[in-house]
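Supplementary Note 3. Input sequence used for the single-chain structure prediction.
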Amino acid sequence: MYEVSRHMQTKIIRTILTCFILSLTCVHSAWAGGFVQRVFTDRDGLAVTSIRGLALDDYGFVWAATEQGLYRVSNSKVRRIDKIGTESRLSDDFLTSVVNIERDKLLVSTNAAIYLYDIVQNQFTAFGSPYLFPQFPGGPLVSAARKNSKTWRLLIDNGQVYEFSLQSPNCSSLLSCRLIAIFLGANCWSCLTVKCWSREPCN
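The predicted structure, written as discrete structure tokens, is reproduced below.
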């Protein structure tokens, strides 16, 4: 049988390690190649403004709530959604947040109102309108947290928390807090007033 010298063993081990390290670098660069970075500017259609909120939908579009409206960003272009020509479809151009709540639905908030945006129908419906929770008191969205797959909890600026579901178009007030309501994360809400946990139907 053949005997391999110590020097030869070292050469073989170095060669194997070199091949292994080179293969890892190739795999690493292949993984890194999947990341795409793109900067959008006013030349692409995004107004020179502050972005107040971002959401990613199920189709891969990024939605930007800005101080000058709602924009949809794709790989190649930016499109303003809340205006048709020069006519605004919302009460205010200054948007504070956008939340993807379902495959074809977004919650969009201005400084004074909340809208449900249907992506497929390209239609905004205001909370408090005859078509969506007529008893809604109004006010901007402060935070939204998913309760389950179809229900969301919405904290508005006056301290009230509402449960919102697209399945059954009736909302219920969970909390009527006058002073402070705190969003602690995930599905955890805390209220710092005494009589908070009263349930009141909206309709």
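The radius of gyration is 26 Å. Residues 175-203 have pLDDT under 50 and may be disordered.
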